[in-house]
Amino acid sequence: MNSYLSIIEKEVGLPLEAIEEISSIRVKIIKEFSSVVHSSFMATSLGAFAFGPNESVNPGVCGRASIASQNSLTSLNWLLFYLLMMNKLILKHYHNYKAPSNNKVWRTAIPIRECYIKLYYKIVYNEDFENITMNFT
Fold first, then answer.
1. N or C: which end of the chain has fewer CB within 10 A?
2. CA 75 → CA 14, 53, 70, 92, distances in Å?
């Protein structure tokens, strides 16, 4: 799947260095979450607890925010960024779709997408913000 996504990323015009970085992040996320999805003993055992601010362990059944949540939220944030970035590029490249300017939903969704991508890059890649975002928006 990773190689197919890399082909799509190349075809829609992403820069090679971005494709390599996206691929490595994707591999990391897949490795990380495959153990959770496939119910490994360690993930299941530790997943039932939430670690408190002073390293105390509290029951976390049915969900509880803890320091362990940060990694999951970081991955979720990256996946949301990736979906928003690729959605427009795929619609344009493969389907020749251009959002109608008189459509209220698209007039709302596109600026939100642009803001999210720029905000993500501003936070993650502060020093190269202007150069990078021109390739994705």
1. N
2. 21, 21, 9, 26
Higher pLDDT, 57 or 106: 106
Please name which of 79, 93, 97, 81 lies closest in space to residue 11, comparing C-alpha atoms.
93
User: pLDDT (tens digit, 9 = 90+) per residue, 49-86?
Assistant: 666 566 666 665 566 666 667 777 888 888 898 998 89
**Would you kindly state where each structural domain of the chain is located, as residue ranges?**
2-98
Which tokens go with 98?
A: 């251009």
What's the average model confidence in pLDDT over 100-112? 91
pLDDT above 90: percentage of residues in the chain: 21
- Three-state SS across the chain? CHHHHHHHHHHCCCCHHHHHHHHHHHHHHHHHHHHHHCCCHHHHHHHCEEECCCCCEEECCCCCCCCCHHHHHHHHHHHHHHHHHHHHHHHHHHHCCCCCCCCHHHHHHHHHHHHHHHHHHHHHCHHHHHHHHCCCC
